[in-house]
Amino acid sequence: MTAGTGALAGVGVLVTRPAAQADGLCELIEAAGGVAYRFPVLEICPPRDPESLRAVVDQLDSYDCAIFVSANAVQRALDVLLEQHPWPRSVRIAVIGRRSAQELERYGLSADLCPDTRFDSEGLLALPELQTVNGQHFVIFRGDGGREYLAEMLRQRGASVDYVEAYSRACPDSDTAPVLRQWQSGAIDLVVVNSAESLRNLWEMLGEAGQQLLKQTPLLVVSERMLPLMKPLGLTAPPLLAANATDEAVVKALLDWQAPRLK
Predict the structure, then answer these.
(1) What are phi and psi of 32, to 5 degrees?
(2) How many domains does the chain have?
């Protein structure tokens, strides 16, 4: 691909999002004149037990609030749930980040609860509406595994909490040679990484040669929780921190990084 004109002209960005979620960000990067290199480091797969997700449909209106921990959870859960039953109006919807809120809108739904600034479990738990939840019943839609902190804190506050696995994750078996060639030629200036798991997968997938390149390349991350992960890997380039994981916030961080370089 050839870089165009615009504020990001000449900037190559490695986008590591899952294949189905990379298009919007790549289009914005390219619209600003940059070059987006797609290299998915997470594969989003069906849940290991699909029946547990389908079973929630019949009892969904028994919950006071449903929490979606990611945009993947929104998409994978609602594709199943809404095929069988409209969303119950009595069940509030909570999300951790803006991208999840945007994904809800694709299904004609909106988030009742979403943090304004800190987009993680701590940010959601800080909302006034979740301080007094004694006797309330929550369901959390997530991928396989993940942090237990959100459920633990809600239970400490008197709520009952059920987990439902909406999807599972895998590390893709990809040919890294093309991206390494681009990197070694100097075409890649930054790497966008959305999660700790994505960073771990990227590190393992790249191998020793790619790891040396990654150590010298700035990472753009979407959560402060990722910053402590960089030093143990020997990543020395100063990182960029987007305000959240939305395409618009990531591109703004890229533009802010590029602006001083244009002067």
Answers:
(1) -90, 5
(2) 2
| Rg of the chain taking only CA atoms, in angstroms | 20
Q: Does residue 157 share a domain with residue 59?
A: yes
- pLDDT tens digits in sequence order for the chain, 263 residues long: 444 678 999 999 999 999 888 999 999 999 999 999 999 999 999 998 888 888 898 899 999 999 999 999 999 999 999 998 899 999 999 999 888 999 999 999 999 999 987 778 899 999 999 999 999 999 999 998 777 899 999 999 999 999 999 999 999 999 999 999 999 999 999 999 999 999 999 999 999 999 999 999 999 999 888 899 999 999 999 999 998 888 999 999 999 999 887 76
Cβ-based neighbours of 187, under 8 Å, separated by 6 or more: 12, 35, 37
pTM of the full predicted structure?
0.84
Same domain, 20 and 64: no
